[in-house]
Amino acid sequence: MQEIRNSQGRLVCRVDKTSKTVEIVERGCLTVIRFTDDGKITVKHTERKA
Known about the structure:
Radius of gyration: 12 Å
Strand content: over 45%
Helix content: under 10%
Mean pLDDT: 93
Structural class: mainly beta
């Protein structure tokens, strides 16, 4: 996965081109966005366990 950082060097999200996935973690919540081959987008929100 490739890490995407903002201008202050903070991690914004992680992107995986092969699986067409974007992962965003904010305040303990993990959001996974997947782009499917048929043009649909799936979004899944889960609480991240420490």
